[in-house]
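Lysine 2,3-aminomutase (Actinoplanes ianthinogenes), 451 aa
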Amino acid sequence: MTEFSAGQPYEYQRRELVEPDWTRFPGWRDVTAAQWNSAQWQRVNCVKNVKQLRAVLGDLVDESFYADLEDDQQRLATMSMLLPPQMLNTMVPHQVPDTVSFYADPIRNYMLPVASDRHLDWPSHPNASRDSLHEHDMWVAEGLTHRYPTKVLAELLSTCPQYCGHCTRMDLVGNSTPVVPKLKLVQKPVDRYAAHLDYLKSHPGVRDVVVSGGDVANVPWKQLEAYLMGLLSVPTVRDIRLATKALMGLPQHWLQDDVVEGMHRVAVTAQRRGVNLAVHTHVNHVNSLTPAVARAAQTLLEIGVRDVRNQGVLMRGVNATTADLLDLCFALQGEAGILPYYFYMCDMIPNAEHWRVPVWHAQQMQHDLMGYLPGYATPRIVCDVPFVGKRWVHMVNEYDREHGISYWTKNYRTSIEKDDSEALSKLYAYYDPIDTLPQSGQDWWRKQQAS
């Protein structure tokens, strides 16, 4: 008997990427490959409401599902519906969907949430908030968050090609829903972008800019290229990261000739000036990875982008098992050329309790991931603690498992704490989802709610 005869907790099997057959959906039976590969066709045919979803799915799913979805959109959804065909096509990818398989699908779970998914006893944590990371509080110019000492987040716009149910920026991004009236960017883009550059020029200690939104794939290319070239003209900026879930949700965008040619110009300029240019995408499940996604990632690397990395979100019902994450990471790294980078614990926004995992679960998953992937491709699971920022899940200072309260410390001041003498010495709280607590902990929270 060998030492491995009992088997491993996870058995690796290579899975080559496959583009699901979109003609299995009644509404797309006559869609040609040329149409499917067109970014314009994908955008025009996005699913934005229940009526349009029914036109694609027909009677493959019961009317009860559509009613469940409509109920969620009216009472609970923090994000409006927006699904490119590319993303919808990765739901139940290997068969014609039916009601049971569509409900069970992990991508459907977070991109097309329904009322029955949510924990109606605890839909939101009592300490949830619509800007859970206080990014808006840290704006130093409209859309420019200065949270970390050497890094800023630039929100160029408030729209995406697709809207994720768990979006951490649900206070700003997307259309208003019945339960969440959205904030608005009020400045003209040219004025907003100029204010960003002015701030960076006057703050040479900032060397790293995350260019996001929304999703940069929705910025008209000429505007985005001008903004990036502006960043590259600031000598103290050394890292630029473009955030785009559309690399996965709408890869056709990143394969358009004008976008490829423009990104090449930006990448060449970045290389010449010694600036690290990377693209960060957001893939949460292996089924989202298709040959089109791999082509888009490979094209970015071929034209000079230094890295394409993935920042996923750890969510129950989607990917919160070791096997799910390892399957995803092997496909990202081995098949698509995308580096697994972070998995964030789902943030404490309203109506997200059914997705969130407790800190101890994230710690166990980080433990169980180790040793399978190459070290450089082993993702870090992080907790984005309000007012603190990203922390590896094992960096918790104190942890009350009964009540689900973890306490964390920090080693820098944000832009709103420059005069706070206790910022680096006090403890900051983060909260586990209440339904994961022992009964005594759940009872304690009910008493807090009642008082």
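The CA atoms of residues 168 and 192 lie 22 Å apart. The chain has a mean pLDDT of 96. ok done for today
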